[in-house]
Amino acid sequence: MTRSPALRFLLVLGLLTGAALLLPLVANRGIVFLAGVVAINVVLGLAFNLLFSTAGLLSFGQATFSAAGAYAVALLLLRVPEIPFLVALGAAAATGAAIATAIGLVALRRTEGVYFAVLTLAFAELVHVVIAKTSFFGRNDGLTGIPRPRIGPIDLADGQAYYVFVILVTALLIACLWWVTHSRLGRSFRAIRLDPMRAAFLGIDVRRRRLEAFAVSGACAAAAGGLMGPLTSIVSPDLAHWGESTKPILFTLLGGAGHFWGPLVGAVVFSGVEYATRSLAGASDLITGGLLLAVVLAIPGGLLGLAALVVRRLRRRERPATVTDAAAEGARP
Amino acid sequence: MVADLPTLLFNALVWGMATFLVAAGLTMIFGILHVLNFSHGGFFMIGAYVAHSLTNWSAAMANIWGFLAASVLAGAVIGIVGLVVDRAVFRRLAHVDGAYVLVATYALLLVCNGFVKLVWGLNVVSASPPPELFEVSFLGNLVLPHYSIFVVVAGVVVFLALEWLINMTSVGRLIQAIAIDPWMARLLGVNVGLIYSATVVIGFALAGLAGGLLVANQSLSPDLAGIFIIQAFGVVIVGGMGSIRGAFLAAILLGLVDSFGTALLPQMPGVLFFVALAAILLIRPRGLIASGRLS
């Protein structure tokens, strides 16, 4: 096992990306489509966790950013078909960052727990109503017939080409989020989470840093959301509904908020459970709700927290003298 | 067409009282347990379904007394469910981070949704008020559906009943004492756990009762929980978390915002509600009545 966190991260990311890229060889089209959606959800979860575990902000409006990205890409592809797709994705990220900055400027005046959560929820519902009622955004029907674009000579409409593209872009976004989390900026986010007053005394501009965290999270979520439209060929106001904002939170807590990969584990497990129970109307809600409740009540560290606990117990049994640092860096106390 | 002023005021009152009925139990549970209960909307919805099934069960229930009895029974059923939820979930959340509490109650909401889908199915069921409330009165230009008047009266009655319970009874005073300082209350020999349970049962019973009373206000579908819970959250937070009087005032205030907002911006109903919610939170972050205790 390598010691450097960056190398270890790249190793894990490489293995996961490789596994995701090999999936079409063994699975049917339905599963591969689902894997694309899960990959996007993983980024949404990680972007949420950057706010939640690193910067200490509970945002209940993450759907705003993913929906903004999805609509930005959909509108650009429908209205300006000649635009290069990567430029459209960049525009989506910029839209997400801009909206996050605008909301953050207002909402970050109140960062105490529930108030910030409800403010972000209120803004998210505001955006939801505006999208659902404006004909520019296709009202309740959303925008349909979003094409799969070309990138240079590659036509992403061919077979699994778009899936491969989604996996590569999400891997890039995950790398960005990891880099931010472990950079100087990420360390100042953590300092603010642990003690805002002390951080301010040390010369950290607390509000500015929080705004930056919000903007980075919004940009990543919007870029990931932008991948959604060409995948499903439709974007609808449901993407901005508050129910969508709760998903990244579920993934994060289910997987383990104190671990960088927590939201990934949560998104994969959650989607697996949802897929396994898809034909049972009602039972799927009962099972996902019950599962989530069990996790929060029994293993608040999430699945990765549980795994770390088990590993620590086993190691302690082998070598009773060693103190392990299984509590990964950035873990919530 | 812009509706006339009396109609707008009446609509505001109906919206406000309907939302207050849902928000009352929510703010009470928050005042004591400091749990912002997402699942409140879910139990409200189950209360509505239970009351609907009861009134459809026999023809003798198809009048206003049957309707009221079904609502009270729904409240009692949900109150008992509250006892179970308190034991199984809320007790265990006492020392958990606020974000996890919010997610736990959201998980409960999912469980409620699943339960409703399994028992009552996915279809939209329309519920109509009892015949006595089906009529409409006119006051000049003002159209007053009897059911809307009933909702307003029910909201005011529930508010007055809660005011009496909290301020005039010994249980109410104990609840207030615990809202202010549970540690000291325990030192003085108050059975804090019992009062916690009682509060949860009352809060849940209010959710069930609200479901029964408002059952004819909308069609029944598994989406019902989400529609009301956001409005109720707004009312609870604007009113000041844990304050019943605050929730009552906030319900009327936000009702006015919603009613006038719909008249001014008919193409975007609900937008002004969220704008007002954000604005009030920024100006008075702790809500209209920020006493930090149940009042």
From TrEMBL, chain A:
Gene Ontology CC terms: plasma membrane
Protein name listed in UniProt: Branched-chain amino acid ABC transporter permease
GO MF annotations in UniProt: branched-chain amino acid transmembrane transporter activity
Cross-referenced InterPro entries: ABC_BtuC-like, ABC_transp_permease, LivM-like
Species of the source: Phreatobacter cathodiphilus
Keyword Membrane included in the entry's annotation: yes
Membrane topology classification: Multi-pass membrane protein
Taxonomic lineage of the native organism: Bacteria, Pseudomonadati, Pseudomonadota, Alphaproteobacteria, Hyphomicrobiales
Residue ranges of the TM segments: 7-25, 31-52, 57-77, 83-107, 114-131, 161-180, 249-270, 290-311
Compartmental location: Cell membrane
UniProtKB/TrEMBL annotation, chain B:
Transmembrane segment boundaries: 12-36, 65-86, 98-122, 142-166, 187-214, 220-239, 271-289
Tree of life domain: Bacteria
Any one GO molecular function term: transmembrane transporter activity
Pfam families: BPD_transp_2
Bilayer disposition of the protein: Multi-pass membrane protein
InterPro entries per UniProt: ABC_transp_permease, BCAA_transport_permease
UniProt keywords, alphabetically: Amino-acid transport, Cell membrane, Membrane, Transmembrane, Transmembrane helix, Transport
GO biological process, one term: amino acid transport
A GO CC term attached to the entry: plasma membrane
Localization per record: Cell membrane
Similarity annotation: Belongs to the binding-protein-dependent transport system permease family. LivHM subfamily.
Protein name listed in UniProt: Amino acid ABC transporter permease
